[in-house]
Amino acid sequence: MKKTVIAAALGECVHVAGISNFLRLADQAGWKTVFLGPAVSIEKVIEAAKREKADLVGVSYRLTPETGERLLGEFTEAADELRSSGVRFVFGGTPPLAEKANKIGFFELVFEGGEPDDQVLAFLKGETKGTATSIEYPQNTIDRIKWKAPYPLLRHHFGLPTMEATLAGIEKIAESKVLDVISLGIDQDAQENFFHPERQNPRQKGAGGVPVRTREDYIALYQASQRGNFPLMRTYSGTDDFIKLAELYTETIHNAWCAIPLFWFNKMDGRGPWDLEGSIREHQQVMRWYGEHNIPVELNESHHWGMRDAPDVICVVSAFLAAYNARAFGVKDYIAQLMFNSPPGLSDAMDLAKMAAMLQIIEPLRSDNFRIFKQTRTGLLSYPLDPSAARAHLATSIYLQMALKPDIVHIVGYTEADHAATAEDVIESCTIARRAIENAIRGGPDMLSDAAIKARINWLLNSASLTLNAIRSIVPHSSKDPFIDPEVLSMAVKKGILDAPQLMNNEYAKGTIKTRIINGCCKTVNALGKPVAEKYRLDNLLDT
Known about the structure:
Layout: E1 4-10, H1 17-28, E2 32-40, H2 42-51, E3 56-61, H3 65-84, E4 88-93, H4 95-104, E5 109-111, H5 117-125, E6 128-129, E7 131-135, H6 141-148, E8 153-158, H7 163-176, E9 181-184, H8 188-193, H9 215-224, E10 232-235, H10 242-252, E11 258-260, H11 276-292, E12 297-299, H12 302-306, H13 312-328, E13 333-339, H14 348-362, E14 371-377, H15 387-401, E15 408-411, H16 423-441, H17 451-473, H18 486-494, E16 515-518, E17 521-524, H19 534-543
Parallel strand pairs: 1-2, 1-3, 3-4, 4-5, 8-9, 8-15, 9-10, 11-12, 12-13, 13-14, 14-15
Antiparallel strand pairs: 6-7, 16-17
Helix pairs in contact: 1-5, 2-3, 3-4, 7-9, 7-16, 11-18, 13-14, 13-17, 14-17, 15-16, 17-19
C-alpha cells in the first residue's frame, strides 16, 4: 500500500514551485501525493493530514523570515499531536527561514532550495537509519545503482601528488555528498611497481596520481571516504601483478569494480611490462578473479582506440570483444564504458550513434548471468583550455550522454585540459553535471529516434560484422573461439584488422590505417583522404 504525503504553502505564501518539485519526486518514489495548494491555513493542513491519513506532511514558506518564524511556531504547536502519533514533517523555505526551522527541531528534514533531486529522492525512498537525515548509502555498486535510479551514480577521478593532499581532498569530497564513486587515481609506479620497490623511481613519485606505497596507505584513503554520503571507492587494475593487486584493492578500499582494458596497458602503449599477447592473457585472468568474487568489471577498451583516432567501426568492434571476453571469463556484472568525444571532432549526433551501436552490438550477450550496466563519460582529450568553455562542454556533453539513460556517469572534471582536479574542482564539476542530469531526466527530446542517427547505427553494425568475420578468418586450427584467443586477438592488431593511426611504427601493431572526421564521423580514408568502405579495407589487408 502506498504511503501518503500532503504538501502546502502555509499562510499567505503563494510560492509553490518547490512543493511541486517535491511532490513530483515523491510520486516518482512511489508515494500517493496530495497537493493542498498555495496560501493554505494551518487548520486546513492539519485537517487534510487527518483526513488523508498522511504519513508525511510537507509545508513551505518563502516570504519574510520573521513572519515565517512566527507562523512555524504556531504550526508546530498545532501539529504536535500528529507528530507524536508518528506523522513525519518536512519544511522548505528560504535559507534564513530554513536556518530558523532547523533550530526548532520539529522537522525531520529542512530544505532551503537547490538540493539536488537525487538527494531528495533518496530521502523519499526512505533508506534511513535512525533519523531520516542519516541516509543509509548502499556500499556496493549494483545496490547503489538500483537505490539511486533513475539518477545515475556519479564517478570522478581523484588523486593528487601527495598522500596528505589526497586524504584531505577525499574527506572534503565525501562531506560535500556530490559524488557516489571516488575513482582513485594512483601514480604510475604504484600501478606497475607496488610489489617491486626496487623498480620504483623516487624522482617519479606522484606522477599521474597519489603515491600509495603501502597497504596502510590504501586503508587510510578508504577511511577518509567514510563520511558524508559514504562514496564507494575504486581504482584501476594496475599494469603488473594483477591478481595480487586485485586482492589488495578488495581488502583495503573494497574496490567497487575493476577497470581493465583488453588490448592496452602493456608495451604497446608504454604503460606496462607485458607484450600484447601476454597482457591479454593476464587481463583475462583478472576478469576471471573478479567474476569469481562477484565484483563488477568494466573494460575501459573502446575509447583507447578512439583516443588514437581509430575509425568508429573499430571502436564498436572493440566494445563487442571487451564484453564478449568479460562474459567468457565469468564476469556477472559488466559495466560498459562509453567515452564520448573520442576523437574530439565527432559531431554530437554521430557520436551518439557510435555509442548506441556499441550498446546494440553487446546487447545479445546479456543474460541472467551477465548483466550489463551503462557508464558514459566525456572525452579526456576534448576539453578546451578556457575554463568557461570547459564548463559548458562538460554540461552539454553530459546532457547528450543522458540520451542513453546511463547507470553511471563518469564525470571528467572541466579542468582536465589544464590540471589534475582538486577537491574543489571535483565538487564544482559534479554540481554542473548534476544539473545537466536533472534537466535531462525531467524530459528531453528522443535523440535516438533521429533518422540520420538510426542510419549511422545500422551502418556501423553492418560494418562491424565484417570486421569480426575478418578476425575469425585468421584463426589458427587450434583455436576454439577466436574472440577470446590471445594469439588471434594480438594477430588481429598486428595484421591491422584492428588498427589506429597513432599506432604507427609500433612493433605490436600495423599502424598504417588513415582516418579523417567526415560529416561528424571518424572514417577510414585512402591516401587522397576519401572514405574507404570497411569491406574494401579488409579485403586489401587480407589479400596482402
